[in-house]
Amino acid sequence: MNIDKIKSLFPIFKINKEIVYLDSAASSLKPQRVIDALTYYYANNGSNIHRGVYKLASIATDAFELTRKNLATFINALENEVIFTKGTTDSLNIIAESYKNFINEGDEIITSELEHHSSMLPWQQVAIERKAKLVYVPLDSDHKITVENFKKVLTDKTKVVALTHVSNVLGYETPIKEIAFLAHQKNAIVILDAAQSISHMPIDVKDLNVDFMAFSSHKMYGPNGVGVLYGKYELLEKMPPVEFGGEMVHLTNKENATWKVPPYKFEAGTPDVADVIALNEAVSLINEIGFKTIMEHEEKLHQYTLEKMSKIKGVNIFNQKADHAIIAFNINDVHPHDVASILDQYNVCVRAGHHCAQLVSKALNQPSTLRASFAIYNTYEDCDKLVDAVIKARDFFNQF
Ligand code: PMP
């Protein structure tokens, strides 16, 4: 697919021609085919899944299960290893809530200061509850997670390693394959937060050999409200469910119950049928464009912008060596929210704040930062408009 045509697949750019959207790390925009799939389901179907024997219900069930099948292929998992959740946060909480049953006093859980709150907080709470020890991989001088530093905290007591794949603030990629290899030698499980990598690079869970992985549909051009929890089948089988209700139970009597096999054991209640069906269109779009094209395009824009931004006096970039197309920056002595408001006047959408990763802000010694994050629909024109708007913001605050 021609990268120049990609922007035209996203209807917002026809409605709002001026918009420069550089906040895809928060949520990506939605292509027409995803919106069409959503409205098609609501207009033509609307039935529940897995329950009805009538035609309409089986059409909905088949469409829903097709997304599972295609997602499994997308990450090289088995179909019954793909659980639908509400999002990355939900997926990561489900793992912690269920796997905490295997955590005992004195066990160690490794995480990092680069984590989004939804990767770190569930394990912080498990550590408090189970009297386990939460251990942080020391970051290197660039604030990256390295294999060398991981080795320093891995011990015979390590039971869980919960790390981000790509930092949502700094765009650094964790060397997770090497880390998983080392963690497994200690019989620890590895949980990967793939919220920021899923739409930017190919992921093969079998090759990385992670035990669990979480990601959100809304960051991969799909609808909000849906996420995925991948888990190795043998682990999912032994883990207890955390939500109880319809469609997850095998047999129940007044006193007790048995559960269905994974993934259904972890999918209690009516799922977000329409959004799961529409997510399939987002997966197909990514497949059709291909990660080679996506990665080349995003990296070109990233390097182009980085070079221009680096030349702006008074701008401080915190991640010159980012592996992925995220630029974290501040204008010296100006609050990031003030800068973001000025950029908005030029229709440039960037994020300001701690990005739900307060430990990263602390590590950078900044109360908050600005973040420009790129996706497949961005253009060189977007990069130029960002650079111009940053210069105008700097001048507005009379920095130079
Ligand atoms: N982890 C990372 C790295 C993220 O960037 C995000 C979203 N900002 C999340 C987890 C949480 O995702 P969600 O809000 O979709 O649950």
Question: Which key features would you list for this structure?
Answer:
42% helix; Cysteine desulfurase; Aminotrans_V_PyrdxlP_BS; 400 residues; 7-stranded mixed sheet; binds 4'-deoxy-4'-aminopyridoxal-5'-phosphate; Aspartate Aminotransferase, domain 1; 15 strands; globular; 4-stranded antiparallel sheet; Aspartate Aminotransferase, domain 2; 2 domains; alpha/beta; Aminotrans_V_dom
Description of the structure:
Helix 6 links the parallel strand 3 and strand 4. The protein has 400 residues and is of the alpha/beta class. 42% of the residues lie in helices and 16% in strands. It is globular and about 70 Å long. The strands form 4 sheets. It has a 7-stranded mixed β-sheet, sandwiched between helices. The model has no long low-confidence stretch (mean pLDDT 96). The two termini are 44 Å apart. It has helices spanning 3-6, 12-15, 32-44, 55-75, 88-99, 117-130, 147-153, 176-185, 205-208, 233-238, 273-289, 291-310, 336-345, 358-364, 380-396; strands at 20-21, 82-85, 108-112, 133-137, 158-164, 189-193, 212-216, 227-231, 249-252, 257-259, 315-317, 326-331, 348-349, 351-353, 369-373. It has 2 domains: 3-24 and 290-398, Aspartate Aminotransferase, domain 1; 46-287, Type I PLP-dependent aspartate aminotransferase-like (Major domain) (Aspartate Aminotransferase, domain 2, 3-Layer(aba) Sandwich), CATH 3.40.640.10. It contains 15 helices and 15 strands. Bound molecules: 4'-deoxy-4'-aminopyridoxal-5'-phosphate. 4'-deoxy-4'-aminopyridoxal-5'-phosphate binds at residues 26, 87-89, 116, 118-119, 164, 168, 193, 195-196, 216, 218, 356. It is an enzyme of class 2 (transferase). Residues 20-386 form the Aminotransferase class V domain. Keywords: Pyridoxal phosphate, Transferase. Catalyzes the removal of elemental sulfur and selenium atoms from L-cysteine, L-cystine, L-selenocysteine, and L-selenocystine to produce L-alanine. Its cofactor is pyridoxal 5'-phosphate.
